[in-house]
Amino acid sequence: MIELHQFRPVLGIPNASPFCMKAEAYLLYRDIPYRFVPSSPRKSPSKLVPFIVDGAKIVTDTEAIMDHFEADQVHPLDADLTPRQHAVARMIRQQVGQDLFLQITYMRWGDPAGWALFGPTLKAHIPRAMRGPAVYMIRRPLLAQMRRRGLRPNDTAAAYAKGKIMLDTLADFLGDNAFSFGDAPGRLDMTLYAFIANIIDQDHQNPLQDHVRGLENLTGYCDRMKRLTFAKAAY
User: Fold this and answer.
1) Each residue of 98-128: pLDDT tens digit?
2) What is the rounded CA–CA span in Å between residue 94 and residue 5?
3) Rounded to two decimals, what is the model's pTM?
4) Domain identity same for 87 and 177
5) 147: exposed, middle or buried (C-beta count within 10 Å: 0-12, 13-18, 19+)?
6) Whether residue 121 sits in one domain with residue 47
7) Helix (H/G/I), strand (E/B), else coil: 60
8) Which domain holds residue 64?
């Protein structure tokens, strides 16, 4: 059976890494049997999770994982998209993977209120030897990266304003559509769902979560995607 190596579920969501959640959502949507293997970046060939083991082959990166399985599908996801739609999907995936990921990082690692809740959760799920200096070594460059992008711990209102604008943009993009480009999910939907659900469904409340929960088309979208993916999960 295929092995999916990723972080353990925390924060009341399938995975606090939207990239891991994206890969698992895809496998569940496609009804591809897999075995979840709790893992860490140290065990990955790319030093990133998720990665899958399929027989003798190891595949890293969520898009590459989808490529690996889509090659054998009779009707691949996005087969009916126009070249323009493919281009739009790529641009949105890239923007979400950078900017919205940074917002998710900020609401857990940068926002002092978020870190007060996420820090103990993180430390409870890592080896005891890593709970002190190792966490500090991870957080310090993240804070520096966020400050360079204008996301400062002492100005959460300004930091979250950037995320709210992006969520409003995604709500405008989705409009009244059930999914990104039609009546069935495509590859972009695996990305959007994983990232938006990481904000909506986590059990640590924050201004960004409050904002997205007020966007009815995005909350309805996440409910539809959940029924097609994690509602099938064994856990």
Assistant:
1) 999 999 999 999 999 999 999 998 888 777 7
2) 23
3) 0.95
4) yes
5) middle
6) no
7) strand
8) 2-70
